[in-house]
Amino acid sequence: MNRELAEAVVGCLRSAEEAPDASGLRHFKARDWQHTFRWLDRSGLTLYLLRCLHQLEATELLPATILTRFEENLVANRKRLDSITNEFASINRRFHRAGVHFAVIKGFSLVPAFCPDAALRAPSDLDYLVDRPSLPAAQRVLAEAGYCLQRFSDIEFKYGKPSSRIPTVSDDPYSPETEPLVELHLAFWNRRANRILINEPQFPLDQITDHSWQGLRFPVLKEEDAFVLQILHVFQHTLEGWVKLCWLLELGYLARARCLDTQFWGRVDIRMREVPGFSEFAAIVLGLVDRVFVASMPPMTPNWRKSIRPPAKLWLENYGRSWAIGDHPYDSLSFFSASKLSLFLHREFVPDPQVRKEITQQRLFPWKQPEQIAVPGENTSASSLTARRLQRQFVLQRLIFHLGSTARYLLETPRWRQLHRGSTGLVPSGLHRVRQPDSAPPGDLSNRGITPD
After folding, report:
1. Helix axes 223-240, 278-293, angle to 10 degrees
2. Using H for helix, E for strand and C for coil, what is the string for the chain?
3. pLDDT computed for residue 164 by the predictor
4. For residue 370, with 0-12 CB atoms within 10 Å meaning exposed, 13-18 middle and 19 or more buried, which class applies?
5. The pLDDT of residue 441
6. What's the alpha-carbon Rg for the chain, to the nearest Å?
7. What average pLDDT values come out for the chain (453 residues) when binned by 10 residues?
8. Which is nearest to 246 in space by CA: 132, 114, 367, 354?
9. Do the Cβ atoms of 157 and 445 come closer than 8 Å?
10. What is the pLDDT of residue 428?
11. CB-based contact 285:204 (threshold 8 Å)
C-alpha cells in the first residue's frame, strides 16, 4: 500500500468533533490508489471513505476512475447485502422453528449503534451465539439449509455452502458471488490459542432483547453486552496480529454517539468490573481507537487506563498506531509486515516464562501445513489445475509473510527491550499463571477459502 495515502484516508475518517480535512487526498494519483485498493478493502474502509467524501461534497478529490470503482463497489455491495439479508432472515426463521436459543452478534446487530448503514460493511460471516443445548438443533438447521461444516474448535463452528466456483481468500468482498460463512459461537475467548486464562465475560441468552432492522426482528445482546463483546473481539484479534480498521472506526462511532449517555456507560462499567483485568483490555482497545481515529472516549476511560501495565502503555505509544494501520497479514505479498509486533504486547499477559517461549516460537515459526484455500469447483482437469495454482500461490504468499514479519519482529526486539527497560510487567489480579498442555489444533474440515470476519 501507499502509506501516505493510508494515513490520509484514516485522517478523513477520524471521529473527533472537528470536521475532517480531506484535502490531502488531492495529491494522490490513480496508481497510488490502485496500489492501496487491497488495504482499503481488507481494512473495511472503502465504503466508509466514499460516504465521508459524499458528506463533505469532496468526491472531486478522487481521480475519476477511482471514484467510479468505489461507486461500483457500493452498488455491488448493496446487491450482495440484499442476498445476504434474505439468507439471514431464512436462517433466523429456521432457528426459531427448531427451538434454537440464539442471539445474533456482530454484523447486522451492530446497525445502527456502531454503523449507520449496513451497506457500508462487507460481512464475511453471519454470526450467532447459541447455548450448548441448542447446538445440535442449530447444526441440523444449517445442514438442512445446504451448509457444510468447514472448520470447528471447542468454542465455534463455521459453515459454508458448496460452490460451483473456486472460492479463495482473495475474492471480491463486495461481489454477490462471495458468500458469507455462518458461524455458531458457544464462547469467544480462545484460551487454547492465546494461553491467557481469564473468566470470560458471560453473555446470558436469557437476557437478550429484540432488534429491528430492514423490517426484520431478531434477538441480540443487550447494548452494553454488545459493546463488551466488541472489546473482547478486537482485543483477541490484536493478540493474534491484526485488526480491521473498520472495527476501531465503529467503536469510535458508538463512543461519540453515546458520549453523553451516562446510564449506558454506567452499565458498561459494571460489566467491565465483573471480570478482573478486563478493563485493561478495554483501555488498550480504546487506546488503539483514539490513536488511529482521534475518537471521543467514554467518561470512565481514565479509570480504565489506570489498569494498563507500563509495558502495554509503551506498546500503545510506540507501536499501536503504525501497527494498526499497517498491511493486513492476509494481504498477498506483505514483505515486511508489522503483524507480529503485537507479540510484544501478548507476552506481557503471559506470566509463565515457558508458556511465553512456546507462544513466541509458535508465532514466529509456525511449522504447520497451510490451510487449503481452494479446491476444484468442478470435476474437471482445468478446475483441478486452477485450484493447485491458487494453492501454490497462497503457500508462497504465506511463506513471504512469515519470513518478513518474523524478521521485522527480530530486528525490532532490541528497541523493544530498550523501551521495556525500567518498566514493570505486573500481572493484575485475575490473570493467573497458565501452563496448559500442548494439544492438537482445532479440527479443520475446510475445503474452501475462509476470510476473516
Report:
1. 80
2. CCHHHHHHHHHHCCCCCCCCCCHHHHHCCHHHHHHHHHHHHHHCCHHHHHHHHHHCCCHHHCCHHHHHHHHHHHHHHHHHHHHHHHHHHHHHHHHHHCCCCEEEECHHHHCCCCCCCHHHCCCCEEEEEECHHHHHHHHHHHHHCCCEEEEECCCEEEEECCCCCCCCCCCCCCCCCCCCEEEEECCCCCHHHHCCCCCCCCCCHHHCEEEEECCEEEEECCHHHHHHHHHHHHHHHHHHCCCCHHHHHHHHHHHHHCCCCHHHHHHHHHHHHCCCCHHHHHHHHHHHHHHHHCCCCCCCHHHHHCCCCHHHHHHHHHHHHHHHHCCCCCCCCCCCCCHHHHHHHHHCCCCCHHHHHHHHHHHHCCCCCCCCCCCCCCCCHHHHHHHHHHHHHHHHHHHHHHHHHHHHHHHHHHHHHHHHCCCCCCCCCCCCCCCCCCCCCCCECCCCCCCCC
3. 55
4. middle
5. 35
6. 22
7. 93 75 92 95 96 94 97 96 95 98 96 96 94 97 95 93 60 85 95 88 93 96 97 96 95 93 95 92 96 90 92 96 83 76 95 94 82 62 74 80 92 93 50 36 34 37
8. 114
9. no
10. 38
11. no
Domain boundaries, the chain: 1-62, 84-221, 223-308, 335-437
User: Which pLDDT score, from 0 to 100, does residue 286 have?
Assistant: 96
Q: Which amino acid is at 158?
A: K
Which grid coordinates are listed for 28?
Answer: 494522490
CATH number, domain 84-221, options 3.40.250.10, 3.30.565.10, 3.30.450.20, 3.30.460.40: 3.30.460.40
Alpha carbon 418 to chain centroid, angstroms:
31
Here the cell at position 157 is: 463452528
